[in-house]
Amino acid sequence: MPELPEVETTRRGIAPHLLHQVIRGAVVRQPQLRWPVPDLADLLSGHTVQAIERRGKYILLRFAHGALIVHLGMSGSLRVLPAHSPARAHDHVDLLFGEHCLRLHDPRRFGALLWAEGDPLAHPRLRKLGPEPLSDAFCGIHLQRAAAQRRVAIKQLIMDGSVVVGVGNIYASEALFHARIRPQALCRRISRARLDALADAIKVVLARAIERGGTTLRDFVNESGEPGYFAQELFVYGRAGEPCRCCATPIRTLQIGQRASAYCPGCQH
Q1: 2 is an active site residue
Q2: Which listed site, 20, 97, 152, 169, has its alpha carbon 20 to 30 Å from 239?
């Protein structure tokens, strides 16, 4: 699944092509993704893209009369292509502008295109989201307050979108490794100092992944069709049974909240 770095990489990639462009039409080949696709041609034709933003794992295309909210689901991607480019299987939606189009490709159809009139941050899918992990609002104090209200593993806490947005399985595992905290540790028992370290690790890991264009997953490509390269720097995720890059202890996995969680028993305690 594309996580925050992949979504931010996509946002940065499409923005120079799409910003301030007038949408001249839309082609909807598949009207049913995770939810029904709105009538994009009627909503957007003749309107100018005023801003391209990200909130959590959602990309927001802002117009004067509202915003198109895009979620890439499990396997979606956005690419800017010449408008006449032949559609492949699973190329479900094109937004046409100039001589180009913004094309949504989504093999599993878990993605979404939603329309919000007015402020998109008030949309039901966005209004209860927690702070952005790279913002000043996210810190050890914030984690400590959230942890005090819950009896869950620390990994479940940081993957809760109401606590902090966009920290998925890959980056939660990597941040916990760098903070030297086991993923199964009960969140309310972790000291403030260690939560400070975890908040810092989340920021560093996500920033580095964005810089490297995201993680190479089977389904993810950025706006130009190129994969990310952060996978080359992973310490625990996807490395079960392999020696830790720091202490050579074999990486282990366990199930937390129905998700596989990789960790190093030598470095994380």
Answers
A1: yes
A2: 152
Runs of H (alpha helix) within the chain: 4-18, 40-44, 140-148, 154-158, 169-179, 192-211
CA distance 26 to 72: 18
For residue 22, the 8-state DSSP code is B
**3, 6, 8, 174: which one is catalytic?**
3
Q: Which of 11, 54, 57, 79 is catalytic?
A: 57
Q: How far is CA 266 from the centre of its chain?
A: 29
Query: Per the residue annotation, which of 34, 203, 245, 259 is the catalytic one?
Result: 259
Non-local (6+) Cβ contacts of 16 within 8 A are none
* 57 a catalytic residue: yes
* 219-252 pLDDT per residue, tens: 334 455 554 444 557 899 999 999 999 999 999 9
- State yes or no: is 259 an active-site residue: yes
73-109: pLDDT as tens digits:
988 999 999 999 999 999 999 999 999 999 999 999 9
The one catalytic residue among 2, 5, 120, 133: 2
* Paired strand residues for 51: 62
d(C-alpha 11, C-alpha 13), whole Å: 5
Q: Which residues does residue 101 pair with via DSSP β-bridges, in sequence order?
A: 81, 96
Please say whether the beta carbons of 28 and 9 come within 8 A: no
Average pLDDT, the chain: 92
Say whether pLDDT at 217 is over 50: no
Which residue(s) pair with 252 in the sheet? Answer: 263
Model pLDDT, residue 268: 97
Please report the domains of the chain, with CATH numbers, ordered by start residue. 4-122 (3.20.190.10), 140-263 (1.10.8.50)
